[in-house]
Amino acid sequence: MGIWFTEKQTANFGITAKIKQTLATVKTDFQELEMIQTEEWGNMLVLDDMVMTTEKDEFVYHEMVAHVPLFTHPNPKKVLVVGGGDGGVIREVLKHKSVEKATLVEVDGKVLEYSKKYLPTIAGALDDDRVEVKVDDGFMYIANSKREFDVILVDSTEPVGPAVSLFTQGFYTGIHKALKDDGIFVAQTDNPWFKADLIRQVYNDVGEIFSVTTLYTANIPTYPSGLWTFTMGSKIHHPLKVKKERFTDIETNYYTSELHYACFALPKFVKDLTE
Amino acid sequence: MGIWFTEKQTANFGITAKIKQTLATVKTDFQELEMIQTEEWGNMLVLDDMVMTTEKDEFVYHEMVAHVPLFTHPNPKKVLVVGGGDGGVIREVLKHKSVEKATLVEVDGKVLEYSKKYLPTIAGALDDDRVEVKVDDGFMYIANSKREFDVILVDSTEPVGPAVSLFTQGFYTGIHKALKDDGIFVAQTDNPWFKADLIRQVYNDVGEIFSVTTLYTANIPTYPSGLWTFTMGSKIHHPLKVKKERFTDIETNYYTSELHYACFALPKFVKDLTE
């Protein structure tokens, strides 16, 4: 049978993947980091026993967290990514020619280091001239920013460990302040099968601060339940009112301009979490 | 840790679920049947080591295979379900008041027997007055039918064991003949992450026989990759041209009239399989 990595997505359910070899096991200042070479998904980054990204299916998450808000905004120039030390979101952000500067604030420098080493197709974009990388606390960085960004993307882990503060209303208030007057933010907000209460709470919290609050989904096979949600808070622009001319030609493997609208059509039991 | 059931969805990847107890293990004339009580998903029907349905997430598959074609057809009266011995598709079909008769043709009587015993919320509808149940070979039943049905739904296992003949062009030709002049059929066609070639082949085969061929998706956590596809072949009616007035009020937990359209917006790498 060989060696298998198993993530318990709940106490009673999980996924399991055959391993070619373990590339690194590190205890960082913030979390346990593992880099695993799997047979099915290529190299896989695991933090605190949770799959963060894999070479084979990473495109779904990274495209969907970036392109939906970046095409909703008419002219995004300054973009901030909180978390996302693997560099995948930054790679997608840079596909938008309007972007002049993309800042990454990742609390754990080891995530950057090991991603550059073992996930080069994902982390390679971190060396781009338009990118500024800061190893810093995302919550504090947001708290110290004012009317600075067009788009803020929160690519955090699940709300355990270092990411707990990134799921609080105080954080969303800070994001609102850090955004320009027509700014947009998106946060990954876990899955509706096992974390319905979290989605409902974040949606309510964001709704109290932003005038346009929406939820959209994507299929990510290595994430719990395979159905992932993203919560968008926007000061003015509505993602469903984007005109077709806005979509420029970028290379993607999941996102399409058709899906831009369709991803907001929620399954009934997910829609119920927003009402 | 207790006892866990693991399905290898590929040679190198799978899901694993904690078991409360095994309710039945039977070798039928066609396949191995297991009924397992799980902690996470309730009772789970397993055929030849593959999860067929679970009490907790069955609604997604059953609603999506039934309501998309039944709302695309303007007035479905006679419906045939091939396979689907658990009864879930029939339950959804009966929510449509226009349906006068729903025929289920399941090759394995043991699936009916154990579903009635251990999956009563799914199989209960099989006792309805409008339902006719036949324990018979689906391929032959179709071959002997002519211009009889408004809608045919193929709720098969994956193309191994008894279901192999249900993924052939000969079968789709038979379905075309068994449908009335404005008939519609839908077949489950597995997932695009691990079975891309199968989807491409079925889509091509159906496209050669039906004038309107479309593909749509749904998220099913206990099915391989979590992203499931359905191929629809229709003689006249187009699923995206359904008028909003057509949608009658039925109780669902996944399907909505909005999703009826949105589920056809495919991720880029899935859309590529249809081109």
From TrEMBL, chains A, B:
Quaternary structure and partners: Homodimer or homotetramer.
Associated pathway: Amine and polyamine biosynthesis; spermidine biosynthesis; spermidine from putrescine: step 1/1
Keyword Phosphoprotein: no
A molecular-function term among this protein's GO annotations: spermidine synthase activity
Task of the protein: Catalyzes the irreversible transfer of a propylamine group from the amino donor S-adenosylmethioninamine (decarboxy-AdoMet) to putrescine (1,4-diaminobutane) to yield spermidine.
Keywords noted in UniProt: Polyamine biosynthesis, Spermidine biosynthesis, Transferase
Enzyme class: transferase
EC number annotated for this UniProt entry: 2.5.1.16
Organism: Virgibacillus byunsanensis
Binding site for S-methyl-5'-thioadenosine: Q31, E106, D137, G138, P162
InterPro entries cross-referenced by the UniProt entry: PABS, PABS_CS, SAM-dependent_MTases_sf, Spermi_synthase, Spermidine_synt_N, Spermidine_synt_N_sf
Domain PABS: 2-235
UniProt family annotation: Belongs to the spermidine/spermine synthase family.
Catalytic activity: S-adenosyl 3-(methylsulfanyl)propylamine + putrescine = S-methyl-5'-thioadenosine + spermidine + H(+)
Name of protein: Polyamine aminopropyltransferase
Active site: D155 (proton acceptor)
Gene that produces this protein: speE
Amino-acid positions noted as binding spermidine in the UniProt annotation, renumbered to this chain: H62, D86, D155, S156, T157, E158
